[in-house]
Amino acid sequence: MTRTTPAGTPLGDDFHVYDTTLRDGAQREGISYSVTDKLAVARLLDSLGVGFVEGGWPGALPKDTEFFARAAAGELDLRHAALVAFGATRRAGVPAQEDPQVRALLDSGAPVITLVAKADRRHVERALRTSAEENRAMIADTVRHLVGEGRRVFVDAEHFFDGYAHDPDHALRVLDAAVTAGADLAVLCDTNGGQLPTGLADTVREVVARTGFRVGIHCQDDTACAVANSVAAVQAGASHVQCTANGYGERAGNADLFSVVGNLRTKLGMPVLPDGRLTELTRVSHALAEIANLAPDAHQAYVGASTFAHKAGLHASAIKVDPELYNHLDPAVVGNEMRVLVTEMAGRASLELKGAELGVDLSGAPDAVGGAVRRVKELEARGWSFEAADASLELLLRRELDAAGERSAVPEAPFELESYRVLLDHRPDGAVVSEATVKVHVAGTRVIATAEGNGPVNALDAALREALVPHLPWLDEVALVDYKVRILTDASGTDAVTRVLVESRDDHEEWTTVGVHGNIVEASWLALRDALAYKALRRNANADRPATGPAAATA
Amino acid sequence: MTRTTPAGTPLGDDFHVYDTTLRDGAQREGISYSVTDKLAVARLLDSLGVGFVEGGWPGALPKDTEFFARAAAGELDLRHAALVAFGATRRAGVPAQEDPQVRALLDSGAPVITLVAKADRRHVERALRTSAEENRAMIADTVRHLVGEGRRVFVDAEHFFDGYAHDPDHALRVLDAAVTAGADLAVLCDTNGGQLPTGLADTVREVVARTGFRVGIHCQDDTACAVANSVAAVQAGASHVQCTANGYGERAGNADLFSVVGNLRTKLGMPVLPDGRLTELTRVSHALAEIANLAPDAHQAYVGASTFAHKAGLHASAIKVDPELYNHLDPAVVGNEMRVLVTEMAGRASLELKGAELGVDLSGAPDAVGGAVRRVKELEARGWSFEAADASLELLLRRELDAAGERSAVPEAPFELESYRVLLDHRPDGAVVSEATVKVHVAGTRVIATAEGNGPVNALDAALREALVPHLPWLDEVALVDYKVRILTDASGTDAVTRVLVESRDDHEEWTTVGVHGNIVEASWLALRDALAYKALRRNANADRPATGPAAATA
Question: So what's the ipTM on this one?
Fold first, then answer.
């Protein structure tokens, strides 16, 4: 927690990859991190090997204060990154050591502090409503105070490019106030995001030449040039680059960490991450999307699921011969993969390939493959999607193998549903109660069970467990991890169906199943049923193993 | 249909905005245009004032052949743009006039033809499997033949930048073959999308200096720099820029037409569109997303719904004073608008600003503002989000005004719920039935009504209408347009709550309301209730108008 420089990156302190997902990224419309989320984000960024993780604004946002407290208490063990607290300079007319906001930055325990300072004279006058002199004094005093308390300090020169265009002298004197007072570097911020690479690079070059200061760059994407601007600034002399995961941020967003790192490493040859971490780019990007509860952008440079996919007829045959002619990069370098899209959604070849990936051997079973292709197309036309539901797809493939008379691959269903009924009551006193009753046949018995739950699906799951666990105790090992709902509407809006994804887990693995129906509870039931059937399948496979595998000989 | 140059753009033929949404954009995973779609796309692009619309590859794709036939038959009346057919040069060893694919280009009737030609020697040898000489002859023969038939010809030099880096002499001789044979210009294509602006601009500058040819630029987004690369190429001497709407295209996509045009016009001052068309940018972008059946990207530069939205507490108070300090551009210039987001980061200033946007005057009502801030924060901590639910927020603000004793702003609730009960049956025969019963008080009566529906929420909505419409016939004007569900899970996964957004519409407007609860049906109920309350509010406001407004005097 006390490290102030990045550890273990080949460029050491000479070049900073500085992530601000947890502060500037969190400004994106729709993102709302819990403290637990924030800790998970910081760990993922650290595992990628970024040099600095800006954790938030302690003292301004209660969640951020708590994040730093929990980090300081030992919940965050960063291997590569130094932790950074973001905050403002002291208020006008108040000594730095008496400003509670400045105090909160020190109390956060963060070894590095980034201060935001106004570099555009118009902002000083019109928004801050103070003089240029007092603005510079606020910066210098606060930097000096924090440095005196043993912290490393960076200064974000907000609205720098607009400010420099409007009044270069004022903007440069702000940088001077920061660096002279002890800040390690000044970050030139394109806060409004209006810059283009050529002009921005010229300014960076000029500022470095005129001041000799170490400068960083912070770009917003309002001209769709944030990544290009960041890279151009580095080429022009910036040695500290601020990014956010997947470009999350206010308005059009920030410079995307993964594209910037991908470009610096693979196009400019700069070793900006520790050895072996570049292959984590795709995984970390998708995991961070998951935590932000946003769908990953399939078309994102380097890390998108479609970014190395080819569907052009022009290319398809040539790609087979010579993939490197048609990709700017071997996708494996960034942990991504090439896909060739079949224009019909599920062709025989892609299903066979997918089967092999899932451990279902479909070679020599043409009828099963044909049946599976038909079944998948029919289901996808009704709104099913197997892209994220491998467990449901594996069950489907095995059922088709069975139906085609191949060696039976699916165990008998461990139970059968006769019926269920769910009751939802909003009572006159305002209380809302969900209750489910299931009637099932299991182990030769008919069982009826009723349970309450937090919502209809939770009640149904509870009743099902109530009925089954006494007969199938292994079902108790299955925990529901996540539950996602998507309403699929056709053009008229009337025939909406609901697609439910259920993520389950036992001590060995996690798996995802899917259900689709006009009724959300029935869709959930279909996904739940598959989740339990998959557990039964795996349990059978494991039970078989000692009898047939090499372990049996020594038993 | 016979125009070969752009009409009515201020730069005339000196600068080309060339759109290839219908050909290269259609390569995007998930896009499948019908011929009718293609005609609609071409009309929208033309209405924006682009110079060239590339319609597809006649002869290679049946839909594209049909598109050109219907265009030629009079279904496409372009005002600004010249229509372009895309195709390949003659095959190796076949005279151009005998090649059926070349024939199809002429038969399309398109006045302008863009030929793709291989500029990278490795592609000629390994993919085309012919010699560099024959490749150049294929280009020259085909260009000469088409020009001889009265067509204007452009040549896309595919993989130009990789090819130039590998063997500059070969790449330049390909350009020479095209231009010497009569092509108007050669388009330098970053087909694999691996370029960065600085290197790409250097190459463009060098090629222009060495050849003196007119060149165009075509960029893919694999380094997230397609827009920046396009602009840098224009600054380096390219006078023809190929883009696709919203950056649609294979892999990471193409250069986004709207960002490129926005940058050229507002940052570099180039009048690339006819007067008055820049304000159509946002509308056309969204309409083209609609036709592609893709959600518009809320964070897209210039045109995204969130691109001029502000949620930072830091900025909100200053934005109120001086919006131009915080936007790189007046959003009205591109037909977009500024929004203030209400979130947990929001303070009093942003709520007041948002209130003004919604027509709720909170000035001089500090208690109401304070109450609203507390209420919003409390609800957002429990999973509510008002970012996308303006109607719920307006009701909240008006209720706080009432509570603070200000002039009553919300009408009495038009009805009161006593209780509801929803029954979901999965019967032994497999049928799934949803039935809801509501007990409500409306117009002094207690009404009980029961209805079936497609799922629990649909049944509840149906029962509610059954109960209320006889007493409040205006409720029948409200249609449910969309329904979105989001499960919000905390880290442990047990205390999940459900957030429901309901989008409603009558003949005058659309509005969105939100509900959050552990039980999805109750969350839906809360959103439904607000949807009807909002309708009642608007109805009252409209009913009041003739009685109090100037219209009353003449009535």
Answer: 0.73
